[in-house]
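Q: Trace token order:
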Amino acid sequence: MTDQTLSTIISAVGWDPARADVPQITGPADPVLPTSFRIGAASAASLAAVGLAVSDLWESRTGRTQDVAIDTRRATASLRSGRYLAIDGARAAAERTPVMGVYPAKNDRWSYLHCNFPNHRDAALGVLGVEEDREAVRRAVAQWDALELEEAIIAANGAGGMVRSMSEWAQHPQSAAIASLPLLEIDKIADSPPEPLPEGSRPLSGVRVLDLTRVLAGPTCARTLAEHGADVMKIAGPHLPFSPTQELDTGHGKLSAHIDLRQQSDLETLQGLVRQADVFSQGYRPGTLAGRGLSPEQLAELRPGIVYCSLSAFGRKGPWSQRRGFDTVVQTVSGITDRQGQLFPGGEPGPQFYPVSAIDYLTGYLMAFGALAALNRRVREGGSWLVRVSLAQTGRWLVDRGQVPESDLHDIPAEFTPDELESWTTTTGTPSGELTHLAPALRLSETIPHWTRPTVPLGYHDPVWPDRSA
């Protein structure tokens, strides 16, 4: 099953599907954790694809090939790596706004409110007309039609959605728009000469990556590039809310600088960084950055040969192309939480989220794979490249892998064994203390994936590139 899943990834970028037979993929078939969705096969295949693309760049650099290996259980654990963080031995608890969650609405429907950022929380509470109290929110949601509440919250610049069944989502215009798109897109957007990789001892040595993404998917892409030697600089707006736990999880290997895109001087600083960069990764809604001179075409003029990675929630087509969204929102509207709740009921009736952030992390791995494949095209044929992914496209791909038969969904452990977790984790000294976290899951025979820089607080560094890594 994993080989077939890997074949769908590499075929999306025009590779020979037979390359799916190259990586060594070990471990049991799904279910790995309590869900019918094939998260084990999807995670192992996504990381195997990254391994193949990294090996291509290594071969471009040295002429040597290397072996790629991944274990399905370890790959699945990476889909909730934030769960396994500890600072000085104390677990780093995930932040969660009390009113965030799923609530019953009118006519036996359900509504999900995504409230983990203050602006989204305030939008939802403003629509509902209540204070930040879970019972008050429950009473207010119960008075709403779920679809009308979804539209009202989106109109208020919030995030959330009505819980749909998978069959309902299949009839939705946005579902049809997503179905018309491939899993990911890599398009040449401008000509430039072929560009060899900088000198160095790792596959991405000397490759500079600007990471303007937030939350999990985009930062996971940049973290993945860092584990193969890239110099990654996380760019964060000092005025924007963030999750400290998520930054601990995705900050491995990165520099971190503050830049406020509302300020012309800061924008010029960013443009200066772009001129010396190789990859620009952003998660703003399609077209949002064009007014600041940071569209794919504008950056291809500024820095010929740029690889521009663009992440969105619902893709570049369809009536929801400009809609805000997160992993949990996509699960909600596409039928995933409805199905999960049917098969694995929670303490209360109703929809449930699966036990990992699969769409987020998988999208991050696929985004990294696209960036790697585009870099190799730049080496061989030159050009500036645009890589496009979305959470909803990844969600559709995951659902399209099929589900584990219900007869096989019994007595599934909800956690990995202590011995497994101990063997998969490492400890890194950081400015915040000794950070225990998962090490990279991918195994390569010649260039062992690892991070050379520790996670640091946002804005820890000046927005200046260091000398290229060797």
Remarks:
- The domain at 2-93+182-315+356-444 is CATH 3.40.50.10540 (Rossmann fold).
